[in-house]
Design brief:
Blueprint (H helix, E strand, L loop, with lengths): L1 E9 L16 H13 L6 E2 L8 E11 L4 H11 L4 E9 L9 E11 L11 E2 L6 H11 L22 E9 L2 E8 L6 H13 L5 H10 L14 E8 L7
Helix pairs in contact: 1-2, 3-4
Subunit structure: Homodimer.
Keywords: Isomerase, tRNA processing
Catalytic activity: uridine(38/39/40) in tRNA = pseudouridine(38/39/40) in tRNA
Length: 248
């Protein structure tokens, strides 16, 4: 047996998230189905982070244990079976103790706001037909870098034992007709980025003021959080690791 690392890109529009679910089409479920067809045995894959329904990924990372074989052929075989909205970009042999989730140092997400109606990008952004106070958005993004307890951004009855997350990067940038929010942290809670974007948009459009913004974050009560930003605007961009895990 050998452990391999897969780099995966997917359009999450048609999927009920990453995690395998009964009677639901998921990214993990589709890849495992393809692996079982090819290898003639069930294979369980472990990911660096589970994305919600409708969320996309440019460089998701997962690992699994398989019998030795030609990894280039395996990559082509998987891509030949799964739908074209999932692509295995790379398969590499790694150390036997490599773990896609626990060895990950940082995750980076990008949320895209469309400032004008878009045809193709409507599936990958959130169009907002009103003016946003970009100064307040930038101020809010910077504020999040000093927050460590993200209880206000985690769903009720979560199984999390800690709500601490450490934000390394949090910034808004306009690129053409899109306003992009990029955030990097050691970990993210379920729905956390969409919650952060949602409350910043409420602030930026004047629905809440700065004092209320801070109160909601410090309340540590997700019931006070405004609605989450739609999943379609969110993309997992990359996962960073401390060391190279490729098998020598």
């Amino acid at each position: 047996m050998m452990r391999v690392k897969m780099t995966i890109e997917y359009d999450g529009s048609a999927y009920a998230g990453w995690q395998r679910q009964k009677k639901q089409k998921t990214v993990q479920g589709e890849i495992e189905r393809a692996l079982e067809i090819i290898l003639k045995t069930p294979v369980s894959i472990v990911t660096a982070g589970r994305t919600d329904a409708g969320v996309h990924a440019r460089n998701q990372i997962a690992h699994c244990d398989i019998v030795s074989g030609d990894l280039n052929r395996l990559q082509k075989a998987i891509n030949g079976i799964i739908d074209r909205d999932i692509v295995i970009k790379d398969i590499t042999r790694v150390a036997d103790d490599f773990h896609a989730r626990f060895d990950a140092r940082e995750r980076t997400y990008c949320y895209r706001i469309a400032l004008k109606p878009a045809a193709i990008m409507r599936h990958y952004s959130w169009y907002l037909p009103f003016t946003l106070n970009k100064t307040l958005l930038l101020k809010a993004a910077i504020y999040f870098m000093d927050v460590t307890d993200f209880t206000s951004f985690c769903k009720l009855h979560s199984s999390n034992t800690t709500y601490d997350c450490y934000i390394k990067k949090s910034v808004w940038r306009q690129e053409a007709d899109f306003l992009n929010y990029t955030v990097t942290a050691n970990r993210f809670l379920y729905g956390m980025v969409r919650g952060m974007v949602g409350i910043m948009i409420e602030l930026g459009r004047g629905k809440i003021d700065w004092m209320e913004f801070v109160k909601i974050i410090n309340a540590r009560d997700v019931r006070r959080l405004p609605a989450l930003a739609p999943a379609r605007g969110l993309t997992l961009e990359k996962i960073d690791y401390n060391i190279t895990q490729e098998k020598k």
